[in-house]
Amino acid sequence: MENYDHDLTKSQQLSVEYHRAYRKLHYGSLGMRIFSHLIMFAIVLVLLFIFLEKLTFIYSGFASALIQNSIPNLSINWITMFNTRIWVILGQGIYPSDTLLIVIAVLSIIIGLIAYLLKRIPLPIRLGAKVAVFISLVGCVYFWFWSNKFPYDLNDFSSLYVSAEIGMWIAIPAMLTFALMPLPVSIFKKALLIIFTMIYTYVFGSLRYAFFLFILAKFSYLWMSFLYFIFGVFFDFAFMIAFYSFFISLVAPGIFKNRGIWRWLYSS
């Protein structure tokens, strides 16, 4: 399809960015792009499963070392998952007292009312506060009436957390591979983004693991659902999106200026 940029006046060309003027990215072979990105993801996946036991051993060992002086009864042991050994931290938490349940319930109600009444508070903060309040109140009610029937302990939470993190170690490169595929950027730069995100998730996840177990061992199982749903794998997705967005901001100016890779939207 012919390029009709010469028919536009200078003011029109300046008022409409080239990459927004009904155009799409077009570069290389689609089949080759899919193949190269799948190979990149496959390499990450194979390396992950080859070193999975070692990775979880270092992961849990580092988290345990951070809090072992405060919680001396912690230990690391392995469970079987994906036909290999997965190392997790074992220990014992405590149940909430009646006083704690009353205090947290009252504070949750107050925070919920503030989030509902003060419309000046940004909507995302109000929504987040309402979700946190709901989880806290449900936890308070449950432990007040059925504390002895609570089906999980620190070991169950530990196994769930590590297995969820392994899922993120698989999901993050898969999603980034799919999201980066349309970009006309070197495959090596894309690989660096995936590696950096994986390293960050690994280190931050281990620190968060130690923090979660410290809270459950020192301040009761009341916070189990709150920690998992509010500060759990959701944060991994949030940071992945943040890193991806930052990467896009770095490569976008070069893509916008490279007119050779833009085609008309309805052209072949």
> In sequence order, what are the helices and strands, one letter per element?
HEHHEEHHHHHHE
> How are the strands ordered across the major sheet?
1-4
Instruction: Give the radius of gyration.
Output: 25 Å
N/C terminus separation: 8 Å
Number of domain modules:
2
Low-confidence stretches: 1-6, 12-16
Determine the fraction of residues in helical runs and give it as a percent range: 55-70%
Categorize the overall geometry.
flat
- Report the portion of residues in β strands: 5-15%
Structural class: mainly alpha
Average pLDDT figure: 85
Query: How many separate helices?
Result: 9
Summarize the main sheet. 2 strands, antiparallel
The counted number of beta strands is 4
Could you list some keywords that capture this structure?
268 residues; mainly alpha; 2 domains; two-stranded antiparallel ribbon; two-stranded antiparallel sheet; 4 strands; 7% strand; flat
If you had to describe this structure to a student in words, what would you say it looks like?
The structure is a single chain. The chain folds into two domains: 17-93 and 151-264, no CATH class; 96-149. Helices cover 67% and strands 7% of the residues. The protein has helices at 10-15, 30-50, 52-67, 98-117, 123-146, 154-180, 187-219, 224-231, 233-257, and strands at 23-25, 75-81, 84-90, 262-264. The strands form two sheets. The chain has a two-stranded antiparallel sheet with strand order 1-4. Strand 2 and strand 3 form a beta hairpin.
